[in-house]
Amino acid sequence: MNRTQAQLRAVLALSGWVALGATLLPAGAFLRWAPILLFVTFGPGLALLHPQPVASRPAARLETLALAAPLSWSLATLAATALFLVQGFSATVFLISLAAFCTVAALLPGLPLPAAIRAAGDESAEAAGAGTGAGGEP
User: Which listed residue, of 83, 85, 87, 134, carries a Cα 20 to 30 Å from 60's Cα?
Assistant: First the structure.
């Protein structure tokens, strides 16, 4: 793992705790709701999907960004539903559960995405075909 991946993982692990700290600001302040909204929308999803291969193609990076928000909202919905079912929902407990999940997920390897897998397969096929002269040239 290179330094930028480690830094990205650290930022993802701390993002939930920063959002939790933002709840201490006055109600209605932009600096209170903006970090919370960004964390709930992208934090858990990006923590699950990163890190991807360093040399990933633009399609893999786009796929990661496209899946991060729906995945994050799905996890937030599951957490909120579970907290409502046990009658323990509050904004603080909700953010603590998502922040803890995000911290643990940032320590684990990222989920492999189809575009990243195809990109790795394409590169190995191109490398294998380069030495045989079967590059499809006339």
Answer: 134
- Among the listed residues 83, 90, 138, 108, the one whose alpha carbon sits nearest the alpha carbon of residue 12: 108
Taking alpha carbons only, the member of 102, 99, 105 closest to residue 22 is 99
Residue 53 DSSP label = P
Low-confidence ranges of the chain (pLDDT < 50): 125-128, 130-131, 133-138
Reading the block at residue 23, the tokens are 């709840």
pTM over 0.90: no
Place of tokens 């006055």: 26
| Residue 29, φ and ψ in degrees, nearest 5 | -75, 140
Q: What is the pLDDT of residue 121?
A: 55
Structure tokens at 33: 């709701």
